[in-house]
Amino acid sequence: MNVEELSQALSSIFASKLQSNVVTRNDVSAEVTIEVTVNDALSVFETLRDDESLQFEQLIDVCGVDYSEYGNVEWATDETSSTGFSRGVEPASGARLRFGEEPEHINTDRPRFAAVYHLMSVTHNHRLRVRVYCENDAVPVVFSVIDIWPSANWFEREAFDLYGIIFDGHPDLRRILTDYGFVGHPFRKDFPLVGHVEMIYDEEQKRVIYQPVSIEPRVLVPRVIRDDGRFDEEAGDASAEAETTDA
After folding, report:
1. For residue 63, what are the contacts with CB-CB under 8 A and spacing of at least 6?
2. CA distance linking residue 172 with residue 179, whole number of Å
3. What 3-state DSSP class applies to 113?
4. Residue 119's CB: how many other CB atoms inside 10 A?
5. Model confidence over 63-78: pLDDT tens digits?
6. Per the domain annotation, does 207 fall within a domain?
7. d(CA 191, CA 143)
8. How far apart are CA 119 and CA 149, in angstroms?
9. Model-level pTM?
């Protein structure tokens, strides 16, 4: 069964439960991506695992996505200047946000958060991506798939830690990468690059404490100074004239 046949089989099995069913190709591979709603997700996942023609018995990864700035370009690398890339010099960009500030551009074409699941069928040698959008942007929630694939445990904790996505039914949903006193979710698009708090050792209290971050955001602009004049038009003309004279 190739990717087109897999896509057709998914359409046949799940019918109206699929919000989207897309085959993506590049130079070396092709992959099927489907989208399902939060309410249909668990039943779809169970079928993906148990149906004999599918048998996606392995969960490779669960990750979060923040689509709030989807399609907006922050790093205009084709038009850099001596003052830096656009993300470093535009005050309204995410790199300059402080605690409580909101990004200027919010993409409203789709829900802000999604959980993305990467599945593999060892039996049939198939891979599949499943996207589930969270219905509420303020409190993003999807159902945990631990009962279907126990390997989802740490993956879901990571998506919760970095994106703030809540996996309903997870038995131990807590941070896994950041510290216990960490404020916010660092992979969200409105999270400032310098963070919200910093950790220091207080000599008076004789312990480590947290305080508001004191670092101001800045972007270092790498500049290369060339001494050979390869981009100097006048130097180039003089060099060409000297070569003509010598000839």
Report:
1. 115, 116, 118, 155, 158, 159
2. 16
3. strand
4. 20
5. 999 998 777 665 555 5
6. no
7. 25
8. 10
9. 0.75
Range of the domain at 43: 3-71+107-177
Structural domains of the chain, count? 1
Q: Are 168 and 144 in contact (CB under 8 A)?
A: yes
- State residue 204 phi and psi, 5-degree precision: -70, -45
Rounded Cα distance, 194 and 220, in Å: 14
| Residues 244 and 236: beta-carbon distance below 8 Å | no
pLDDT digits (tens, 9 = 90+) for 131-184: 999 999 999 999 999 999 999 999 999 999 999 999 999 999 999 998 877 888
Which CATH number does the domain housing residue 123 bear?
3.30.460.80
Distance in angstroms (rounded) separating the CA atoms of residues 111 and 13: 26
Name the phi and psi angles at 17, rounded to 5: -70, -20
Strand 30-36 to 20-25 pairing: antiparallel
Given CA atoms 131, 133, 138, 141 in this order, what sign does their dihedral have?
negative
Provide the pLDDT for residue 72: 67
CA dist list (Å): 66 to 50, 75, 109: 30, 17, 13
Q: Determine, yes or no, domain membership for 58.
A: yes
What lies within 8 Å, CB to CB, of 17 at 6+ separation is 36, 37, 40, 43, 44
Q: Which two tokens stand for residue 173?
A: 């949903």
Of all helices (H) and strands (E), which one includes residue 209? strand 207-212
